[in-house]
Structure formats: C-alpha cells, structure tokens
Fold:
Amino acid sequence: MKGNEQKPRIGIFGRRNYGKSSLINYLTGQDVAIVSDVAGATTDPVRKTMELHGVGPVVWIDTAGIDDTGELGVLRVEKTFAELRQVDLAIILVSKNIFEEPEQRLVDACRDAKAPFLLLYALSDINPPDNHFLSEVEGRVGVKPFVFNVNCPVFRQPLLDKVLVSLPESAYRHASLLGDIISRGDRVVMVTPIDSAAPEGRMILPQVQVLRDILDNDAIAVVCKETELSKTLQSLAEVPRLVVTDSQAFDYVSKTVPDEVPLTSFSIVLARAKGLFDDYMKGTPAIDSLKDGDRILLLESCTHNVTCEDIGRVKLPRLLSKYTGKNLSFDIVAGLSTLERPLQDYALVIQCGGCVVTPKQLASRLAPAIAAGIPVSNYGLALAYLNGIYHRAISPFSL
Structure:
C-alpha cells in the first residue's frame, strides 16, 4: 500500500506562457490545469495523478513561471524552486529560441538537487526552433531539447517514452522492507499500540506497509497490542523471527520480548528503506552531547491532529529533556513547510519515519542539515537510544 505522496513526482518548469499547463493537460488527456493567454495563470503547483505504463501511478506537477514578477511573483518563483528540489524528474520548457539565465538557473537547480531533467522545446508550431539554437543548447547543458507542440497528438507517446526512460527506477521500484531479514514461513510479530494518537478505525501507514511486506515475503504476520504481547508470544509454536513495534512502546516491549528475539520498530524499518540510515546512525549518539540551551528541530512529514500522546510533539521532547537533564528548546515543523529559524540554530534534527513522502523528498529535506554538519536522527532511532536499547533495535539489520 502506498501513501498518496509516495508516487514518483514529475515537475514541469519554465517561463510564463510557455505552455506548462497545456503540457500537463496534453500528457494526462484531461483539463486539470487552467490554460490562459494571461501570463501567470498558474499561481500554486497543480498536481494530477496518472498511470504511466511500466511505472504505475505518477504525479504530474504544474508550476508557476520562473520569470514571474512583483512581490507575489517572487514568492511563486521561490515555491517553484522548492518544488523542483522534491521531484524525481524535472521537465524544463524552452521556446522562442531563448535559453538565458532563467533556464540555466533551472538546469543548475536540477544538478544541485541531483534531479534528472528533460528539455522540451514548446510552442514549436508558433515559434519554430532554429537548428543552431538546438545544437547550442545541447552543447551548453548536454541535453538536446525534444521538439513538440500540444496541438499534435503524434508527439504524446514519444514524449511519454522519454519520460519513462529518464525517470530513475529508484523512484518507483522499491526494495522489500524486510526481505533480507525474513524468509518464507517466518513469524513476525507486529506490536501496534492503540491510544488517543491512533487514527480512528484503521492502522497507521507504516504498520500497513510492514504488514504488506511481510505477506509479500510469504512470512506469517501476528498482530497484537502491547498489552497482549506476552500472551501472544506464549501462544506461538515457534520463536518469532522478528518483533516490530511502534517506537513509543519500546520501553514496555523491550522488557517483554526475550533478549534473543530480534526487536526493532516501524520507524526504524522505514528509516532504513528511505536511504538515510547511515546518517541517522551517525547522528543519533549526538543526543549525549546536548547542552543547556540547545534547540532541537523535529520534522514531521504529515499533518495530523495533535493529542496529549503525540510522539513527536509530546513524548520525544519529554524524553529528551528527562534523559539529558538539560534545558532544551524544541521546534516542530510539519509537512515540507519552510523553517522559521536558520538551520544553524539547531544542535540536532530528528525526522519522523517519513511514511508519506518519497525518498527524494526526505533526502532533500535533510540534505542541508547533513551538509552543514548538523546531526540528524529519526524518531525510532532516537526513542531506542533514549530507552537504552539502541544497539538492540538496529541489530536486526546487521545480522
């Protein structure tokens, strides 16, 4: 099962009135983006999900023009470049035989974000491309523009084929969460606490993702609440290959599960799958170096209703303060919102499991902190550390 935001993201970028909105309608075969001759019709990113053969569902993103002007225009351009840093593939439109600073800025931003990109020459029926211009652009950036126009259906499939070839497989082919740890017939116990922070009538996404992965590996999933864990373990005919718990129940569960049984958490499983596990392992021990007055940044990928048992906004700050005995300050930022403080103000960044974002989004979110040498951790790894079972919680992945 995938969260809506885990689909590969393909962004369309370029100047105003270059046909970005027309292109997204052309590719999806639907009128999902407003098309107008008035410059700046697209003010906020427009998203449309489409099934792409060979990949599955992808999200097309129509963005505001990078040459927008005025006070609001500057904000729109900033939002466009923020969107570019999150995409798995960027489509950059050029036209009118113009390739200047705005286009070069997009190309440079793609390279800085390590995002592959395609160059498309748009409006070719109105402003035919000059062959010298096409060759000059190819020599300048190493990519030859694909010439098309949205009024001719013959270009649609070749363009989709180029998208398919250019989209990194890592954006849509994900390795098994537990496939290198569990085997056919293994029993995996999932401990899923139900408290006021649990969603009504359903399991949270990380639990569903791990459950599906267990089934995909032909293993046997046994699901229980932490209060029923002891009885569940006693009822099993075989010792479980692994126990996966919600991180907030680490203290209780670690005392219930025998030491010889591997134990970890849903958040740690996801941290490993998202590709930043080594950075988290390097950064988590920095908890011991926190001092009075240090500020901690807690990053939540989703937006949810906050309760008195919220793991990121209540439990983690409380445990960190108790464990360190220091006077710490905490800032919580949800979704992909911009930070209100300079990143350098923080002594530690702790990211949630990131179940609703793509690996590219997560990596982009944490890249500035990693580059600045600020330690980064993950909810699950931090909670394991604070509960004194850090090495036990990561040991299943080094067996």
Notes: The first strand starts at residue 9 and ends at 13.
